Amino acid sequence: MNLFSIFKPLAFTMDPENVHDFSMKYFSKYPGISHLFPCAKVSEQLSITDSHTKWSSPVGLAAGFDKNAVAIEFFEKIGFGAVEVGTVTIEPQQGNERPRIWRYPENNSIRNAMGFPNAGSKVILENIKSSNHTCCLGINIGKNKNTSAADTPSEYAKLYEMFAPHGDYIVINISSPNTPGLRNLQTKEAFRDICIAIDEKRKMLSKPLYLKIAPDLNIEDIKDMVELSKEFSLSGIIATNTTIQHSYDKGGVSGAYIRNISRDIRKKVCELTKETKDISVIGVGGIDSFEDILEFWQQGGKMTQVYSSFIFHGPKLLVNIQNDMLRFLKENQLSSIQEYTDRF
Prior knowledge:
The protein is α/β, with parallel strands linked by helices. Helices cover 38% and strands 16% of the residues. Strands 3-13-12-10-9-8-7-4 form an 8-stranded parallel sheet.
């Protein structure tokens, strides 16, 4: 039985955020409901590591879906190789005014102007502690809307200190377009201050640390972010967040609309990090097929994440990609995905 095929036609007639909140409520309370959906199966052939973390498959859930870390077990059960929760801020945050999510089914894309709505660090930390997941867990951290520029580095450092003991990796989010001034932190000077503040905490507790970047950076800014990632021994770069290169209203667009934009940025980041084996690239943005993932592997990446394509295709997306990966291994007489990706 595929519950998603029944649910989607009705859900797409309703407000996107109401549908999301309803879904997350049930995924949280009843993770076992996963058996009503197609589920990708765990296979050691598909597990993958970037030398910092190990995922049970190369496809993880991107941040922003499970903002408050309430349904990690459900997403693990349907076959995600990793789950990234958040974005988490120190204090609870309402986010921007509603409506703030819009669907574009004609091109399988989403526009959002959320503004980091979340229950705050204390509640989310308790949610993570009470979860019975075994999957690789990423925790995406960001600043509160009203935090001053002067206090921003220490706020990121505090979040790192709180969550590093409880996740498998931490992600610095300075690339959402929906918090005023956040993307200004993607300058060399501002990001350096954040790295310095977090680095003090990393001396006491080392945990894989990634940077999530926007797809709208110019080449010089990308080089600066890569340079600082190398200088401060970050584990990798997640490319990319949503784009503001669109003709719609406010907010950032994700999904098929940004496939080419994100792909080009990922390619550039892979080129710039190719000689630094300890810095990996996690691909996200417009990925909705095995072909997209294969292209990313050939660029030098390993792990990928999905968000919008999961909304439009449901858990069957993971099953289809998994079947294509297993077929690819058989056709090429490969023992594992790791064997293939290590070639690049």
